[in-house]
């Protein structure tokens, strides 16, 4: 793994109502050029970003989630071309939120695409489905867990609800990830809290950084993006030499970017003086006598 650091840009992204794909593309260009001008190397946009394009559809399509998902597929090639071009032109590695992609059978994967300046394009599908996603009846969870390299640093992607599950994130970290990128979208305070607690817990367990992007504002026209809550946040383990509350940076304004440097070498150095090292001590909970609890009679 490289010792070189990465400067992260994490979005609290306001949902608008573009009338054309070109309007959406102009907004993406403004946002990503701003992140690049601030010195970022990696930009993380939020979950369900593609559903902002639902505003371009006629009434009756944009009001119907199933119809809008079907109509969205016509933009897939332009979506990929847009972010591939912006990654190339800005020099950013771009997590382009998520796109609800038809698998060819009229069912959809919630896919986070990662575009690189050199032309690379990889992705991670969301693994676990929320109650909302299950109720649609047409969204499936992914079946593959991946780790990627950005400028020599290994990273994982955990899409929103996925960050609430310890074992897949642990598997990514065991494969070398020390930075986990979390595109998210939550519509209630409880949902925002669950994702936040998941991010803090995964940072603690794995001694890694977590970068969570969020959607912001209201979009009454959308059946999926109608209400949006939460703050874009960058998390770290709570230990010596790192923030005591685990918060490296957090949005305070209505929307915008937050920035922070991720330094893998510094993270390794703090492990040597750690008060605790959950990542190092993880195997202790896997001892044979601890794998299953048994009822002790006589209590």
Shape: globular
CATH architecture: 4-Layer Sandwich
Pattern of helices and strands: EHEHHEEEEHEEEHEHEEEEEHH
Q: Unreliable segments (pLDDT under 50, ≥5 consecutive)?
A: none
| Strand-pairing-aware structural class | alpha/beta
Give the class-level CATH name.
Alpha Beta
* CATH level-4 homologous superfamily: Carbon-nitrogen hydrolase
Helix residue percentage: 25-40%
Number of strands: 15
Strand portion, in percent? 15-25%
CA radius of gyration is 19 Å
Describe what you observe in this structure:
By secondary structure, this protein is an alpha/beta fold. The protein has one domain: 4-Layer Sandwich (Nitrilase/N-carbamoyl-D-aminoacid amidohydrolase). A hairpin with an 8-residue loop joins strand 11 and strand 12. Helix 1 runs parallel beside helix 3. The longest helix has 18 residues. The model has no long low-confidence stretch (mean pLDDT 96).
Question: Notable features of this structure?
Answer:
single chain, 299 residues, alpha/beta, Nitrilase/N-carbamoyl-D-aminoacid amidohydrolase, 15-stranded mixed beta sheet
Short description:
Belongs to the carbon-nitrogen hydrolase superfamily. NIT1/NIT2 family. This protein has 299 residues and is an alpha/beta fold.
Topology diagram in text:
Layout: E1 6-14, H1 21-37, E2 42-44, H2 65-72, H3 76-90, E3 93-95, E4 99-102, E5 108-115, E6 121-125, H4 131-136, E7 139-140, E8 148-150, E9 153-157, H5 166-174, E10 179-183, H6 189-206, E11 209-218, E12 227-228, E13 233-235, E14 247-250, E15 256-262, H7 264-272, H8 278-281
Parallel strand pairs: 1-2, 1-11, 2-3, 5-7, 9-10, 10-11
Antiparallel strand pairs: 1-15, 3-5, 4-5, 5-6, 8-9, 11-12, 11-13, 13-14
Helix pairs in contact: 1-3, 5-6
């Amino acid at each position: 793994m490289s010792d070189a650091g990465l400067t992260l840009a994490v979005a609290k992204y306001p949902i608008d109502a573009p009338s054309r794909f070109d309007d959406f593309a102009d907004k993406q260009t403004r946002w990503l050029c701003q992140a690049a001008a601030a010195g970022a190397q990696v930009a993380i946009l939020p979950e369900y970003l593609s559903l902002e394009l639902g505003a371009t559809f006629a009434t009756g399509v944009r009001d119907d989630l199933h119809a809008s998902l079907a109509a969205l597929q016509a933009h897939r090639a332009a979506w990929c071309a847009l972010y591939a071009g912006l990654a190339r032109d800005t020099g950013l590695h771009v997590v382009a939120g998520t796109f609800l992609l038809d698998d060819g059978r009229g069912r959809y994967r919630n896919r986070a695409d990662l575009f690189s300046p050199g032309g690379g394009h990889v992705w991670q599908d969301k693994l676990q489905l929320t109650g909302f996603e299950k109720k649609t009846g047409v969204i499936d969870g992914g079946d593959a867990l991946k780790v990627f390299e950005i400028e020599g640093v290994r990273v994982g992607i955990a899409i929103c609800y996925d960050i609430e599950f310890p074992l897949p994130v642990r598997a990514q970290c065991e494969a070398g990830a020390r930075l986990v990128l979390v595109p998210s979208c939550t519509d209630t305070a409880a949902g925002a809290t669950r994702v936040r607690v998941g991010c803090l817990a995964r940072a603690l367990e794995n001694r890694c950084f977590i970068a969570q992007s969020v959607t912001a504002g209201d979009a009454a026209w959308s059946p999926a993006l109608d209400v949006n809550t939460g703050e874009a946040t960058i998390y770290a383990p709570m230990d010596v030499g790192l923030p005591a509350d685990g918060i490296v940076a957090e949005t305070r304004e209505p929307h915008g970017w937050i920035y922070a440097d991720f330094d893998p070498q510094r993270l390794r150095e703090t492990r040597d003086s750690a008060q605790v090292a959950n990542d190092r001590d993880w195997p202790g909970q896997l001892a044979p006598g601890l794998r299953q609890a048994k009822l002790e009679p006589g209590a």
